Amino acid sequence: MESRCRFAFLCSIIPFILTGCWDEVEIDKQVFIAAVAIDLAEDSDEEALVEVTEHLIVPSALGSVTNPRPGKAYHNLSSTGKTIYETAKAISRQESRKANVEHLGLVLISREFAETEGMLKNIFDVFIREQYMRRGILVVITEGKAKEVLHIDAEHVSLPSVYIVDMLENDQTTMTKDPVKLGDIHEKLLTNRSYSLPYLSVVTEKILKYDGVAVIAEKPSRMVGALTGDISEDRHFISGKARQSVVTIQVEGNPATLEINELRSRYVLLNENPDALHFRVDIELDALIKEYVGQLDLYDEENMKIFTEALENEVHKRAVRVLEEVKDGMQVDILKFDDFLRIHHNELWEEIKNDWDYGENYFADSDITIVVEANIESPGTSLKGNQ
Amino acid sequence: MSKSHFADDRIQSLDIMVALPSIVIGVGILSFPSTLAQSTKFADGWVVVILGGLISIFFTWAVTKLGAKFPHQSFYSYASHLVSKPVASIIILLFSLNGIFLTAFEVSMIGFISHQYLFEQTPREVVSIAFFLAVIYAVAGSRSGIFRINLLFSPLIFLISFILIFFSINFMDVDHLLPLFKTGMDGYVEGTIQSALSYSGFGVLFFYIAFVCDPEKVPKRAVAGMSSVVCLYLFIYLTCIAVFGHAPTGEIRWPFIELAQSVEIPGGFFERIEAVFFTIWITAIFTTAMIGFDITILALQMIFPKRDKIVLIFILAPIIFFISLLPKNYMENHYFDIFIGYVSWLLPMIVVILFWIMYRIKGGLENGK
Hints:
The complex is a heterodimer of chains A (387) and B (369).
Chain A: H1 2-17, E1 30-40, E2 50-57, H2 59-62, E3 74-81, H3 84-91, E4 98-100, E5 106-110, H4 111-115, H5 119-129, E6 138-142, H6 146-149, H7 160-169, H8 182-190, E7 195-202, E8 208-217, E9 222-228, H9 230-239, E10 246-251, E11 254-271, E12 278-292, H10 301-330, H11 337-344, H12 346-352, H13 362-365, E13 367-378
Parallel strand pairs in A: 1-4, 1-5, 5-6, 6-7, 12-13
Antiparallel strand pairs in A: 1-2, 2-3, 7-8, 8-9, 10-11, 11-12
Chain B: H1 13-24, H2 28-39, H3 45-69, H4 75-83, H5 85-117, H6 124-140, H7 143-168, H8 185-197, H9 205-208, H10 218-244, H11 246-251, H12 255-262, H13 274-303, H14 309-325, H15 330-362
């Protein structure tokens, strides 16, 4: 009798324990969203604001490393709507499988969208709020339509999203440093700071290019411009991340190319009066001579000085050009002077932070002096210039 | 006739050292960085983590020191000596109520959080009851079993937390920690209270110290147990601030879960550490709920000595489960959390102060009495 009771008791309990069936996840019935592109909605007859394109990957279509399946393993689906989440739900009506957001790694935003005031700020919330998404999602701005970037047919990798993410993460040159993560943007949004995002453009059907950085101002909240080419690279002289960047100087009429081996920059505040802020940026760098076709003897003290001075002048010139563009032109602080003030002059910062690079714009009114100190660490394996 | 070492209900002071982190580390560990970041600036929260910790360590010491004055005496017997029987009964009843609410809260939270992160489709109640049945099973057995399971789980909780912190190093930014000491006095006071609240749970020592075979060592060991929690919390707090920055930490609901999600172990082999994290964290909640329930049973057995333990468990279980289903949304849960936090702090705090005063007046029990 007792054992029968127990049996009955167990039977009534066990169904409750077997809860797995509710949340059963079949990998074959899933499709993974690897990237999301956000554009302005074109047909403005409705109330739609955004056009969302999902870059969907079907894992079984990828095949294995040794035995890749031919053909595309991805497809892009688009829809328009008022909010991102609503639009994503609309997209799922076009999809036969259940969309999984856990592997979302990239958000592309078109320049046009970012330049529209107040739009950019509002789209990040859904990515932060959604519990299955991660703070490590990379965010980029694209020159043309963001969804077109997802159609890039790269020759060496099968998935466009993998191509873009790899490009952002491998720092081959100085420009392509600093991929920006969603978590970083969250911080900037919460502290009302301006920031920069990687800026990509499509070169051909098969090739993308890392053009520089897009500058996003806090007020008015929109993209104010892009730093492209050399300037986007040279900003690292000031921010102190310019390792591996290459500088070509003229020494007595002959070109010499040096690579920066080590670079440190330090900000100093000389005048604390908010209306006449004066910063000094000390840049210390070690460089290697990589290419030189002149005839100077590099083991001569005097000649080394000539090189050093030429390098210092060149770096100084470039840093000043960056300041002209960023401080005087865009008037947006993406060079982390705000972080410097917050950390080292906190009282002053608390006073001026709401008028830093907007409103009164103390940043644009400030003076910045640049001091460069270069050191030629090594001439390579050759003593004289070869000609 | 030799009895197995673990068969009786005697425990060692070492078990107390391990049990304390088990009960203190519960749901609070997920959210405390957020609460502290709201009242302090930048990384200054570490000060309040330590200050709050010191207060908790002090009270832990006070409780165990008092208990050590009455070796092998049950709480009921020394409480009735100090404050008379009726008052002792009321205090014990309050402790058992506290235990009921604490257990219900943990059961409820496991439902809510796993509903959000793990099982979207599974009804909250089903997750809760599956978890609660395991708690009931643990409590229904011998008490030494509870201590052994603590001994098994506690090191794992610490290990996984430190692995998580270790792999976060890559994501840290020292700029987030600076500048130092920019919080005002108000912030420190508020933060210290908040941080002390996240260490609640030392009240269980009142009850468990009676089972210890070497009570004179307990104060030291209990303080060590509490200090290890303070240490863990300190590292978790600094990691959260260094990884997320001050402002986001204050805005993220459960920074510790977010941390587990953000951290990627390099190499892609084991990218998702949060799976392990949730497993371990659920065991941490499990030990908290288990001890909470056990204390309730223990307390009630003192007032109703004739009632069988199993009967008490089966009377209480539906009540606890019912209470755990009462919060219907995050706001109600939040209030429940605050309520539990204050009660589990104030009750043992008031009791220990009262007892020490009475002890100074009345003195201890005569030996052999």
